[in-house]
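Forwarding the complex inputs:
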Amino acid sequence: MSSTAYIAGVGVISAIGNNVPEHLAAFEREQPGMGEITMLDTIYQGKIPVAEVKLKNSELAAMTGMPADISRTTLLSLVAAQEALADAQIPGLDELRTGFVSANTVGGMDKSEDFFIDFVKDNSKGKLKNVYDHECGSITEIVAEKLGLKDYMTTISTACSSSANAIFYGARLIKNDVLDVVVAGGADALTKFTLNGFNTLMILDPEFCKPFDEHRQGLNLGEGAGYVVLVSDKVAKTLRKAPCCKLSGYNNSNDAYHQTASSPDGTGSYLAMKGALERSGLRPSDINYINLHGTGTPNNDSAEGTAITRVFETEYPPVSSTKSFTGHTLGASGGVEAVFSVLAIRHGLIYPNLRFKTRMNEIPFKPETKFLKGQNISHVMSNSFGFGGNCTSLIFSKI
Amino acid sequence: MKVYIRSSACISPQNTFRNGDFLADTVEYTSTRLTAIEPDYKEFVDPKLLRRMSRIIKMGVATAQECLNKANNVMPEAIITGTAYGCLEDTVTFLTRIIEQGEEMLPPTSFIQSTHNTVAAQIALMLQCHGYNNTFVHKGISFESALLDAIMLLNEKEADNILVGGTDEITDTSFTVLTRLGLYRRWPVSNLDLYATRSKGSIGGEGAAFFMLTDKPSPDNLAELTGIRTIYKPITLKDIEKRVAAFLAENDLTIDDIGLVITGKSGDLRHDEIYEELDLSLFKNSALANYKHLCGEYPTSSSFALWLASNIIKNGSVPAVTIERGLIKTPPKKILVYNHYQKIYHSLMLISAI
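Prediction (whole assembly, two chains):
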C-alpha cells in the first residue's frame, strides 16, 4: 500500500464533442450540446430537449472498428477509452498489470428495448442478439477485450455517481498493488427507458437546463463517456509526457434520506466533500474550482448548494455545472466531469455555467458564467451524486 | 491483515434463513427453475415500504438485517453489494409499460427502484448508514468484486465492519429469455438428480447472501476469508490448474492442505467438463462438494457457496446433501471454493477455520 494514482491520460465524448480538443473548443465558444431528439424513436421528439452525441451508431462503429448493431453505450465507451489510452502513451503497456473499471446505469438497454417490442407481443419472439448484452458488465467486457485490458475488469453501478466511484476504485486498485494501470470512468447512451423514467419523475426541463439558477426547472438528459488513465508511481516515472495531476482525494458517502430525493441540508454531499478534503490533506480554501454535480433540478442544486455553503463557509471557490453544456450523462457524468477537471488543471481553465441569471435564494454564492483561461488551477473538486443517496466527491491536484 | 467473516445470512431456494438444521431438510424441486423461500418480511421491513418493494429488494434488505442481527447489530462502516442483473422485476415492469402504454401515463415507482444500487441504498436508508456504499454489476464476478472492494477497505484501515452481499432474482421474463439463450434445461429435472442426468443446460436459481466482514479476531467469528481470486477466460485446463496452485501457494498451501473443495458444478455438461477434469487431476485426492443443485445457477451464486463454506467451518460438519466424493472424517479446516460462470468468469475463495 503506497502509490498515489497519477492521471496519465483522458478521453471524452459527449454532445459537445467527440474528443478532448472538440470539447475545449466548445467550452471556449460557449456552445451547448442540447437540441431536439433525433435518434431515439420516442413520442417526446420535439417536446423534450436532450444532449445527443452528434454521431450515429454507424459512424461510432466506423471510428472504433466495431459492428454497428451493438449497444450505443459500448460504442461511446470505446471511443472515449481509446482516446484516453492513446493520450497516456504508456511505454510497455503489454508488460504491465492493466485493468478496466467502467460504470454505466442501464447496460445494453437500447438494444433490450428493441428486443422487448417483439417479446412483449410473443415471448418466443425478439432477436436474442439484442438482449444478449443487456447486463451492465457486458459493456465493460466488450471494451476491455478490444483494448486488451484483461488482468482485471469490473463494473460499478451506483446511479449518477457510478463513474466517479469507478475512478477512485481504480485508484485504490493501484494503491493496493493489484494493478499498475487502470482505465476508469463510465458511459451511458440515451435510452427510452431513462428518458421516460426521468420524465415520470417530472424533473426534465422542457427548455435548456439552468443549473444553480433560482428559476431552474430540471435537467436535460445527455449521453457520452469519459475515462481517465490512472497509473502507479512506478509507471508515472516511465511516461514520455509527465502526468499533470493526481487523484489526491475521494470519498463516497450515503445521504440515507430517500431513494431519489436529496436531504434538504445535503448530508450525503457534505460528507462526500468533507471526506475528500480530509483525505487529500487540503483545506477548503485550497480548492480553485468545483465542477458541480449541478443537474438543474430544484432538489439537487439546493441540497448541493447548501452542502457547499457548509463546507466552504465564506471562501467559495469558482463553481460551475458543465451539465449546462453536456446535459446529465447519468452513469457517465462522473467520468466526463473528471476529464473536465483534469483539463481545467492541464490548461488553466474554468468553464462557464451557461444560462445562469438569478442567484438561488438559499445560497450565498453564484456560479462562474464566463469561460476563463490562464487561471492557476492546482486543485479541482468534482461532485457526483445519485439515486439511492450515493454521493461521491473527487479531488484532482496539480503535480 | 486477516479478514474474518463475523456473521452470515442467506435466503435461497433451501431453508437457509433462520434455520438451524443446516440443509438437513433439503427441499426437492422438479423443475428447471428454483425459487427462493422467502420469510415473512414484516419483522424486517416497515409494512408501508414493503408493499412497494420488489422481491429482490425484500430479499436483500431482510438478509442484510439478519446478518446484522447476528453481528450484534453493529453499524457497518461500508455496505457493498454485487448483482449481475440488478432489479429485474422493476426493470421489466417499466420497460413493458413503455411499450404497452406507448410511453404515456407511466407510474415512476418501478423506474425509481430499477437502479442496480437499490438494495445497497435501501439498506443504508434502513440503518441510517452514511458510510461508503457501492454496487458491483460485473456478470459472474459481481459478488467477488464486492468482496475485493471490502478486503481493500479493511486493508486501507477505512472500516472495521463491512456488510457485503450478493443478490440476484429470477423473474418470469429472465427465465424465459435465459432459457431461450440455452442456459437452462428444456425438461424438468429433480434438483437432487441434477448431476446424475447429463444434459446441456442447468437449472435457474436466485437468492441473497450477506456477510459481515471484519479484520478483528473474535472467537465468535464464523471463519477466516483467507483469499479470493478471479480469473478471466483462462485458455486451457493447464492454465486453470496452474493458477489454482499459484493461488494456494500464495497462501503457503498446497491442494493437500485443503479439507474440502466446493465446486460450482451446474449440471450443464458443457460447463462441468472443467470441474470433471480437475476432479481427476489437481483435485484427485480431495474431498468434493457441490452446491448449485441447492440454489440453482445464477451469476452471484458464489455468495451461496461462501455462506455454505463459512457455516461448514463454523459447524464442523458437511451437510450430506452437498457431498460428492470423499470420506470426510475430520471437520475441514480449510475449504477451497472454485466456481466458474459460463466458463468465462472463474473465481477462487479460500475459507479457513479461525
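The CA atoms of residues 133 and 151 of chain B lie 14 Å apart.
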